[in-house]
Amino acid sequence: MTDVNLATARDNMVEQQLRTWEILNERVLEVMHRMPRDRFTPSAFANLAYADMQVPIDHDQVMLEPKVVGRLLQALDPQPNERALEIGTGTGYLTACLGEMAADVTSVDLYPEFTELAASNLKKQAIENNRLETGDAALGWDDGRRYDVIAVTGSLPELHQGFHRSLTQGGRLFLIVGQPPIMEAVLITRVGEDQWARESLFDTSAPALVGAPVTRSFAV
């Protein structure tokens, strides 16, 4: 696909996918319009970078569809003075968007190949306000810091509070909770030291975060 066609596809993504799915935050629209999603998409699927679909990447993972990324960013609403944590780096696209909206981003992935790929992709776009880590964050990520926004890009079959205490007071956490075929995107806000508010955002579906706990039931 030519640069002209990619530019048109990016325009169409914003106008036909994001705006029509109630994504009206101008900062989010501007960042997603400017960020070249195709540069973070595997070459085999580059023509689908701006399509309304999940794009497959290695290890049976996906890039979330653009409208879900948009709703995630709109719900979290990262501010220029805030610190962000991302669980599930993938190719680095959401890392880049968070980096454009927040002061800095820590992003964690289970797979070192994704950490290396994202580092390369982010460097090519001259996005430097990020710290990429490789590790298992299925039960949470306690690095001694608290974060104003946390985005968990893999779904949790069952809600747990492993990420809740990594939030600052007033901090926001985006999660996708449940099991196929329909899952729920939720926003959790820390309103007190031991209090959190939960808001249901929309129905969606995404691959489970590798290693996320699930209660197994056995037929008798």
TrEMBL record:
Name of the protein described by the UniProt record: Protein-L-isoaspartate O-methyltransferase
Annotated source species: Spiribacter aquaticus
SUPFAM superfamilies, sorted: S-adenosyl-L-methionine-dependent methyltransferases (SSF53335)
One Gene Ontology cellular component annotation held by this UniProt entry: cytoplasm
Domain of life from the UniProt record: Bacteria
Family membership noted in the UniProt record: Belongs to the methyltransferase superfamily. L-isoaspartyl/D-aspartyl protein methyltransferase family.
Entry keyword set: Methyltransferase, Transferase
Gene Ontology biological-process entries: methylation
One GO molecular-function entry: protein-L-isoaspartate (D-aspartate) O-methyltransferase activity
